[in-house]
Design goal:
This protein has about 100 residues and is mainly β. It has strands at about 1-5, 10-25, 40, 45, 50, 55-60, 65-75. The chain is elongated, with a radius of gyration of 15 Å.
Length: about 100
Amino acid sequence: MNSSIASAKEILILQDKDIRPIHYNSKTDKLNVKVGDLIRAGSWLGKGIKSGYSGQVYKIIENVIYIRLGRPYLISEGAVLEVESGSLVQRLDKLAT
């Protein structure tokens, strides 16, 4: 879970089936991300490499960054999460109170 500047919490719902590639030049482009990092659409992955996806950096090989798509949610500071990391969450499940 990442804390944002606005003192709010962010969680990301991740899905294994939705993985998207982002191509880059590994010889000239230096990456700012590593495997496991959570990113939002518009995040800079490296110099001149902007993500069009929200999710998690799943894998980096040769000239491709693989992003496992996810859905970001903004939660107010002080909210209590009702789910554990890695839990199965279904539509309409309460995530936080």
